[in-house]
Design goal:
mainly beta, 5% helix, single chain, globular, three-stranded antiparallel sheet, 80 residues
């Protein structure tokens, strides 16, 4: 799967039913040695999405349960 195939999908936590962001507005943590994606890093945006503010949310790649047509579903109790 290519990044362009998953870019623009909403990230939803199925544990809480909360929307966390959109892939494409996130950063990826990549293992430099293996080249594998380890985590999604979601910045907290304020002011209509123009200003990054506060702590980032880091989602472990292993938390992803399903990549659907419109969204990426993750399962983690620690993130709302």
């Amino acid at each position: 799967m290519r990044y362009k195939d998953i870019s623009g999908k909403e990230i939803v936590n199925i544990t809480h039913g909360s929307r966390l962001g959109v892939l494409g507005q996130t950063d990826l943590q990549i293992n430099e040695r293996t080249g594998q994606i380890e985590a999604l890093v979601i910045a907290n945006y304020k002011w209509l999405g123009f200003k990054k503010e506060g702590a980032e949310t880091i989602i472990d790649w292993r938390s992803i349960r399903k990549i659907g047509e419109d969204m990426i579903m993750i399962e983690t109790p620690n993130i709302d």
